[in-house]
Amino acid sequence: MLPATVQTPAAEALAGDPLWVVIVKAVLILVFLLTSVLFAVWFERRVIGRLQERPGPNRLGPFGLLQSVSDAMKLLFKEDITVRASEKILYIAAPMISVFCALLIFAVIPFGPDTRIYGTDFSTPLQLTDFPVAVLFILACAALGVYGIVLGGWASGSTYPLMGAIRSTAQVISYELAMGLSLVTVFMLSGTMSTSGIVDAQADRWWVWPLFPAFILYVISMVGETNRLPFDLPEAEGELVAGFMTEYSSMKFAWFFLAEYMNMINVSAVASTLFLGGWRAPWPASWPGYEFLNTGIFPPLWLILKIWLLMFVFVWIRGSVLRFRYDQFMKFGWKILIPVGLGWTVFFAVGRATFEHFGRDLNVYDAVAGLIAILLVVAVWSFVSDAKEKSEAEVDPDAEPEVLDAFAGGYPVPPMPHQVLPPSPRSGRTVDAHAGTREEDSE
């Protein structure tokens, strides 16, 4: 792996950008994100409408494209209510923190190679900035973004927002660990943590193939990281009214809404950059005569196309999967995702070191490592499932069910299928009362 002080060619080129170029890039990124959020709201409602066999928004503008503008104007002109019991400063600052952290991530996402600006002799990479630990910067911004949710829930001075904020804290800790583990093998294979360096390392093949288990792990973690179904426990409307956003209205609510959709676009862009070749075209672009697909206007278009393919995955999951219970959610993060991430990291690192020690071709190992890991996971899963079914089959159906003390550990738990609750004294009193009532009626 390269030492952290080594500058990538893109970082050296970006260091020479004049101030006006930096400002133009920042404004373009801001416009791109805001426009993408408006389109994402329409896109999600339209796709879910198709999944549920209904038209979706189709009244305002062609194909309902102006529906998002209408929603934004509605939030802008709604009454802005400030809760009297809230911590005023933090209550107002919380949604701003979420939006600000969401805006920072795209600063290190490369949209294309070194490109000449039209009408001038000046050329610059299509990226705002880059440095040797850019991916760690992305993880830090994603972690700081949750402070907006936590502070918003706590500062609201209400019970349901506070519960949503606490859930969000546990969620970020759980799923950011799995997300970090999924990126370790990307750093191993690329030899750098720079986003432009990782894209350059995928010139001959995308990392999604040799690192397919890491890609699946990242996709699951990014859904949990952005509080989207089936992991939207911090704002579960069936349990917590609207979660951490319950006491927010008008534009402060819209800022949280904006941050959520920006984070969806952000994690999709990171997945495209780290696993799907970033701005690079598919494999024909590496063949002689097809190099033009990685030049000009094509690189940004390839990246945007990959982002929206992953955005479709977000919407598809929301329209297909039910929300988890909170215990299922935490168990999935700690007992499945993190052990799988650790196992994949060890498997990949030890395998590459062994191949290198015996002088074998590392490209061969990279080509088959992902497939072998998937087969191992399937085999272990099948073994565990068979063992569980066997243990359940061994339960004697004629045996007396075990009486469960639901409050033995100090926390009420429901009985399992082979357990029963002890008879309630209240039920006995109820039976006696009904019997006495019937006797009085007969007299």
From TrEMBL:
The chain crosses the membrane at residues 20-43, 89-111, 131-154, 175-194, 206-224, 253-277, 297-316, 336-355, 367-384. GO terms for molecular function: NADH dehydrogenase activity; oxidoreductase activity, acting on NAD(P)H, quinone or similar compound as acceptor; quinone binding. The keyword NAD applies. Pfam families: NADHdh. It is found in: Cell membrane; Membrane. Residues 429-443 have a biased composition (Basic and acidic residues). GO terms for cellular component: plasma membrane. Residues 411-443 are annotated as: Disordered. Belongs to the complex I subunit 1 family. NDH-1 shuttles electrons from NADH, via FMN and iron-sulfur (Fe-S) centers, to quinones in the respiratory chain. The immediate electron acceptor for the enzyme in this species is believed to be ubiquinone. Couples the redox reaction to proton translocation (for every two electrons transferred, four hydrogen ions are translocated across the cytoplasmic membrane), and thus conserves the redox energy in a proton gradient. This subunit may bind ubiquinone. HAMAP family: NDH1_NuoH. This is NADH-quinone oxidoreductase subunit H. It comes from Demequina mangrovi.
